[in-house]
Design brief:
Length: 102
């Protein structure tokens, strides 16, 4: 297991490595590039090989809606509240789409 830091080399004798990600410091969503250079027993370095890894948040947020008050007289205003809606960290709600459906 390895904790990668951008721009910091990590040398191993193993031909594979697990990228360890801490919940407190996740790799942010997006495209991230990793590089490998191998060294032979004569000390010769290969040309770099790279791979792109896409970190994608695919967990849907949860919408929670309440109305206050929940019963009103004709012509009376009321408030819709989505503040209890949530997303799995480190995601956050950035937009609320309100629709009257009937």
């Amino acid at each position: 297991m390895a904790n990668f830091q951008i721009g910091t080399h990590l040398s191993t004798n193993e031909n594979s490595v697990e990228v360890t990600v801490a919940a407190a410091a996740p790799i942010v969503p997006g495209v991230h590039h990793f590089q490998l250079v191998v060294v032979d027993d004569s000390g010769n370095h290969s040309d770099p090989a790279t791979v792109a890894v896409v970190v994608k948040d695919s967990v849907k947020p949860t919408a929670v809606i309440t109305a206050a008050p929940s019963q009103v007289e004709p012509g009376q205003s009321f408030r819709l509240d989505g503040s209890k809606s949530s997303d799995v960290p480190p995601g956050k709600i950035v937009s609320f789409i309100w629709t009257m459906i009937d």
